[in-house]
Amino acid sequence: MESTELDSTLTESAIRESGLITLSLTVTPVLSYALAHNRINVVGRVGVDNRGPAVREAVLRLEVISAGDTLGTARDLLVDLAAERTATFTDVSLTVDPAAMLLINEQRPAEIRASLLVGGAVVATTGEPIQLLAAQQWIARPVDLALEMLSAHVLPNHPEVAVLLGEAAAALEARTGSAAMPGYQSGPDRVDQVAEAVFVAMRARGIRYATPPASWADDGQTVRTPGEVLGTAADGIASGGVGTCLDTVVVMAAALEQAGLHPLLWVVAGHAFLGYWREEETLGAPALTDVAEVINLIDLDLIRLVETTQVTDRGAGTPVTFAQAQPSPYLEWLANLDTVIGVVDVVQARRTHILPLPARTVTADGTVIVTEYRPDAGTADAPGGDVPGAHPAPDTQASTAETESTEPTSTARVTPPRISQWKNALLDLSLRNRLINFTERGALALTVPDRHLADVEDLVTGGTGLTLLPADRMSTTDKERGIRFGRDLPVDQLAAVLADKKAVYADVTDTAYATKLRALAYKARTVVQETGANNLYLAFGSLVWTVNDRELRSPLVLVPVLLEPAGRGGDYRVRLDESGASTPNYCLLEKLRQQHGLTIEGLANPAGDAGHVDAAGIDLAAAFRATREALLAAGLPYRVEETLDLSILQFAKFRLWKDLDENWQTLAGNSLVNHLVHTPTQPFVDPVPLPEAADLDALGAECPVPGDSSQLAAVAEAIAERTFVLEGPPGTGKSQTITNLLTRAVYEGKKVLFVAEKRAALQVVQARLNEVGMGPFALDLHDKASKPAAVRAQIRQALEHEVTVDGQGLKNDLDVLGTARRSLARYTDRLHEQNSAGLSFYSARTAQLAADDDVRPLPVPADLPARLTADELAELRRMLRDLPDVTDPARPRPQHPWAFITTPPAAPLDLATVTRAALELDDALAALPRADETAGPDAKAAPAHVVAAGVVAAAASPTELVTLSSLAAADRVPLATLDGTRTPDWAAAAQAAEQATTAFVQAEHPAFGVLEPGALRLEAASLHRDAQAADASGFFGRRGRRKAVLARLAAELQPGAKLSLGSLSTVTGQLADSQAQLDALRTRVRAVDGVSIADDWNPLLAGAETGQTGRDELAARLAWLRWAGGVVASEHRDLGDDFVAALRDYLDAGTQPDAALSAALGRALLALQAVMTATGAGPAAVAGWAADGGLVAVWSRGRDERDVQAPGLPTLTRWIALLEHLEPLTRLGLTAAHTAVLRGEVDAEDAGLAFEKGLATASVAERGAATTLDQFDAAAQNRSITRFTTSSGAVRRHLPTFIPYSVLRRRTIGATDAAGETAGNAEATARLGLLKRQVDRQRGGMGVRELMHEFGDLITDILPCMLMSPESVARFFPAQAGLFDIVVFDEASQVRVSDAVGAMGRARSVVVVGDSKQMPPTSFAESTIGSGEEHGDSLEFVRDEESILSECVQAQVPSKWLSWHYRSQDESLIAFSNRAYYRDRLSSFPAPHHGVDAAGSDADAAPTGSAGYGVSLRRVDGQFLRSGKGKTLRTNPVEAQAIVAEIVARFAADPEGVPSIGVITFNVQQRALIEGSLRDSGDDRIVHALESEADGLFVKNLENVQGDERDTILFSTAFSADASGRLPLNFGPLNLPGGERRLNVAITRARRQVIVFSSFDPEDLRAEETISAGVKDLRAYLDLAAGGADGLASPLRQSGALDRHREEIAEALRERGFAVQTDVGLSDFRVDLSVATAGAPGHPVMAVLLDGPIWAARRTVSDRDGLPVEVLSRLMGWPAVERLWLPEWLGDQGAVLDSLDEKLTALDAARQARESAALA
Fold it and tell me: Which member of 33, 364, 666, 1581 has the greatest number of CB atoms within 10 A?
């Protein structure tokens, strides 16, 4: 749809009245002081339905209205609304001012109101009614949010709580001998004692009981403070307060929290009671309404309850004891769970940032003291550790015997706190650790006949599998004998089963066997995948001992095993994990050493002198004997039992702990480790300096895997050995980046360590290294591959590896690639290279299109954009912006009275001089004839006067006035004569006359040798006759007669000249000839019309009056005639036509000169000159000013406005101010624009727009010429792209041989010289020989650790890339600083800091790759494996820990960002996460399909089993089973069956292949149910797909799906409404702090499709009633799944500006009948034009990409011209992707459209053919 904007014609009132925009609102229905104090957002979502045009920069106002006023401050948000769309805003946040809420003293109604303002006016509004609670009031609605907020009323910060804890400490000391309150460090019994002491202390206060309200939901209660409940205890005398059940619960909870315990608040109908954790756990959510799980925890004695009303005076009789107060809540209130409202976990609430309210106390003098809750800063480094703000009671000390530390007591080194913290995280020696406290619930007990335990160990370590039999699988004979279980069989029979069947009985019934063993195998496999370490062990033997009077059982010897089914439907068996080794329980040994100083050398070092190792492994009998002897020697009454258990034990952490404990000083040599240890709060300073900016295009050509610019920038930084964080959201190519990084690092001779917890992550990188030829240089030491035989095989393969390379072919392809790349880069530079005005070819064109059609462009010189500086441009823009300020007072127009002044004066004007000159001009002009004046008494003069007045009025310039004055003073020449002067004949005659005159003058006249030219006045002929006669006369008369003739010539003789009488006749003859010539000349001159000469005209003689010669007079006359003839001609250059016409009339009307007019005009001209001189005006400016109306009239009309006698000449000063303001226009050459402004032709308000329009137009031409884009060749450009992509692929095909070849050439170890001899020094050669002998051994030989310690340097030379887990690094490599140049962590968000330190410390630089918006490392309370079958898997407690990624981010390590997302083949798959978690920073690619199945149908309506795209919701009528027994507990069988049916159908639809499907569940029970159902489906392909590590089928829960991806993800929410029809808001781990990160992981696993199976509708999920970000995001995601992309929450502001160039093309295509959408996409990468044909408008077939600024801003040629086209066409499935270049479009739009039309027509024909074929 073409974009539209709200324009000025659609007013705010029109919008309001038309109802084009409506609002909807979802809010929290109850507001409380607790909500306000904790800054909880009370608005869930705002919907804005806009049925009109687009609206930009509207204001969305949110406010709480109470009693007609806004409570606190309204929240204003700027929003953009798309045309005819509904926008849903979820990122709004309205919090209430706590100070305002504190003042509310009673419950009252209010309203949350949303308003939309456009232009400051409200155009739409809506409101939702709410209830405001009194400041301390609590009410149980909405129930989830109310329960979460109840923890805010638990005030450990209240001063009276500290006093109470002091009293409790005294009671504790009196009862137990110790006042210590060590939290959970001393076990659950001490926890009970502390809780009892608090109970006793409260009871001693004499608290009076108050009856609670009848209904928590209807009435609520004002919660009393600890001071009000406890009263005071002055001088040991208790003065009790008063409290309800709820009051006493929150007070006792506050005391327990302050004591370091984890209290629970239970709220039931009409009552409340307390619970507390006996172990350091939490519920995982701040509050739960579904408490069935928690009841199980009570049954398991992990939680105990307390009836706190028993501390009051409620009831008569003897006060009950603490022990009596514990069972009553369970018996009285939990028998019927329907009465339970919920339970609140206070500590988990604190972790979710629900903080206690400020405690207010009043001193005796009335001073109010506010005590704020201050979280303990010391816990900031230990997420999941002690609760912030939970401080021990005052004056208490923890005894050394009762506290536990993992720090050895004998160490002499001062260990930094951070090192101690990491060590504690690695080695948990508390009773939570199953290696210390090995409970029955945590193990599967195996029955072994007496004295045969060592046989089992020998059997397993010898490589024979051990089959596990169900405990009740008895023969008929045994059953008849009454034997029900294997453990009851005789010893010899059990021994026979072991010997013959290689089997033992497991403590699990046949009914539960498959479920239990399948679940255990899955968990063990998951641990390996997640951590790279196998934690499944056979535990041989147990030490039974005590800690703090608590009996414990701890395993002694651990043998790593694998659990696998013996066959389909058969038994399970365990076999030795060859990658591990039998080992003592070092955790137990360390605990014994710390607790008792006991060292058991025979157990600790079974291979040492005191140890005992037999042929198959550890000699168990000897090890047990050594243990017993050590215990006896130490006098410890502990015993060793010969037991056998199968269990998942976190033993791998011990190796990491030991590595850190022994080597932390070495490891801290790494700069990052040192920073994290000593200066984690300061910015990290990398010791490696920043490298020069890399040529990413060149680097891309050298990388074997295609990479975008963000990936290549990371590679460049890494190979420079810089330490940094690389944030890579899902699908951004982290593995590709790592592959390029590892390859380039190895190529440059570096040693690289790649570390990943998950096997899957390593396998991806390993597969890619194999693809690019680098596999032989990478050693896999992760888990399975770390078997000695496998390691030796890898080393041997690396030593034998050879490769050949096509060097010439690579060079040629590199040359072609470089040429094409440079060509494409030049085009980008040229297209977007800015001129001096800041405009490029592209931006100038878009500016042209953006300009208002109604605004006339200012004329801008063509060369201005190139020569304009930034300062000059800014000056122009400022000038035009401020133009109205000077034009408004000056009022510029063509005939402004001062408009003849066009340039500002160089110096300030002399206003007095201007005034005098102007007044004189007024008078002078007034004296000129005017048409409205009478001619006087002489009527005959009237016509002449009128004509004269007319020509005066027509004169519009000084030139015209001068012309008129000249003609008026001159003799009149007939107009015909003047007109004749312009004819050829006259011109010829005049020219002939002039030429003849000139010839006469220039001719030789001998007579004038002695005579003056004036002699020509004489009668030369007569003189000559007389002279001749004298010559002819006689001798005597001749002389006299000659003298007579001479006398007549005497006056003309030249001075000093003498004329002899003898030559007289000669001279007169010559004179006569000259005179004859003159007469002929005169005749010719007189023949020229308009020329009259005197009879004595002599061209040789100057006139007495003029002083000119006759020739000069003639020339002047002819010139005047020509001039006069010219000025009376039409279209004169300097004279107006009107003036010429009037002048002709004037000349035609008179025959005599008009001296009076000439004189008057002379005066006027003098006055005008004076004005011009005084003002600096020029003649041309005056002429232009007076052109319309004549100078006299224009000047006269402005007389009043000019008002020259006004003080200060205001009109003139304003005009001068305008000229001065416009000075930049003239200075910069914009003279036409300057004139237009002065003439008033430019609207001052639009002057800036007019200039920008003119500048854009000029810039298009200037840029086109300057960059030669005006000669652009589109075909050549497209050929360059083809060459680039083709040669890129060709080069990349060379690299898998060229890079290995280069690495091998540089290898010195094992290389041979030209003679075939091994190169290198003798020692290295010898060691290499030893290594080769080791790797060639088939049996025996060194283990992996021994190989690495002995030959590590050689091996890392041969295999410079190591692929490992953190545990395998500590296991195999010595702690040596700088062992590797670079360590790269993958999936670092799941690598604990403590796990990562060892790997970091072995390298010089660190690259931490991960996604901080995905799951952190998670620790689970170890799962139960017990034999019971009634409960299924028990609740798993989840605790998030700090990752190396988040640690580095917090420690301000520099970071880089991968920005291109490639995984999702439908953009909606990543759009939610991009918006919700990545701030729209990811660039994803639109697809032509969206939400459709493979056949093109709507995915929501697609049948089961059909593949599709996008996110969809599949609603099922399932029920989540919250209670009951069996394997379906806490599952949704209907939903599970729907998912199984979907998978079965997809497998059936693809009989040849294996569909790529992943199933993700919220909990482990649903996961187990779905996987079990799939395994029982009867389809071997499905079972095989589940077992395979290939891209097939998986079923996982939220916690372990990170790193996986599949084409289709089936998401099972499982949860449903409860019996009351209400959906509880407990979604397991999603409710945890950071639960949204788990959701992010789950919803970003799909490549093509996500189907969310849900047993509830999105609107059933009342996300506004909880603070859980995970639940809120789930609701938003379900909206997306239900509504498609339209359900995606809208950003407040729309991205990007309107691209007019794009819209112009779109409109042209629409005019040709195509369906076009512009700016298509859900990220910052957009398809500029999505085009569909008229036959199928809903199915786009062509993506058109333009070359705009966003395209140009991409950092590499590949990002611009390679990657997008390839991804869109190959991955996203666009049938056609076209590039359209701006110069091509401007050059020939018709040709471009014709080409697109032709291609679209062909695509449509192909579509029709496919449809026809499908129908056939």
Answer: 33
Question: What is the crossing angle of helices 734-747 and 709-719, to 10°?
Answer: 40
CA angle, 1767 then 1772 then 1778, to 5°: 65
Predicted pLDDT at 1505 = 61
**DSSP state letter for 693:** P
Cα–Cα dist 858/621, whole Å: 102
Strand 778-781 to 75-81 pairing: unpaired
Tokens of 1179: 């003649």
Overall CATH class of domain 12-132 = mainly beta
Do the Cβ atoms of 82 and 76 come closer than 8 Å? no
Instruction: Give the distance from CA 506 to its chain's centroid.
Output: 55
3-state secondary structure string across 1311-1341: CECCCCCECCCHHHHHHHHHHHHHHCCCCCC
Q: CB of 453 within 8 A of CB of 561?
A: no
Query: 486: helix, coil or strand?
Result: helix
Q: pLDDT by residue (tens digit) across 1641-1694?
A: 999 999 999 999 999 999 999 999 998 999 999 999 999 999 887 777 778 766
Torsion of CA 1550, 1555, 1558, 1559, to 10 degrees: 10
- Which region, left, alpha or beta, applies to residue 1614 given φ > 0 means left and ψ of -120 to 50 means alpha? left
Kindly report the pTM of this predicted structure: 0.81
pLDDT at residue number 1661: 94
308 near 249, Cβ under 8 Å? yes
* CA pair distance 1407, 1452, nearest whole angstrom: 14
Q: What is the β-pairing status of strands 1646-1654 and 1606-1612? A: parallel
- The rounded distance, in Å, linking the Cα atoms of 148 and 1443 is 27
Query: In which residue ranges of the chain is CATH 3.40.50.300 found?
Result: 663-683+699-783+1307-1422+1429-1450, 1492-1683
User: 87-106 burial, b for 16+ CB within 10 Å, e for fewer?
Assistant: bbbbebebbbebebbbebee
d(CA 1538, CA 1531): 13
Q: DSSP label at 1628?
A: G
Segments in the chain below pLDDT 50: 1-9, 234-237, 377-412, 608-615, 935, 937-941, 1314, 1420-1423, 1426-1437, 1494-1497, 1499
Structural fold of domain 1492-1683 = Rossmann fold (3.40.50)
CATH architecture entry for 1700-1815: 3-Layer(aba) Sandwich (3.40)
Question: Which one is the CATH code of 663-683+699-783+1307-1422+1429-1450: 3.20.20.70, 3.65.10.10, 1.20.1600.10, 3.40.50.300?
Answer: 3.40.50.300
**Paired sense of beta strands 43-50 and 21-27, if any:** antiparallel
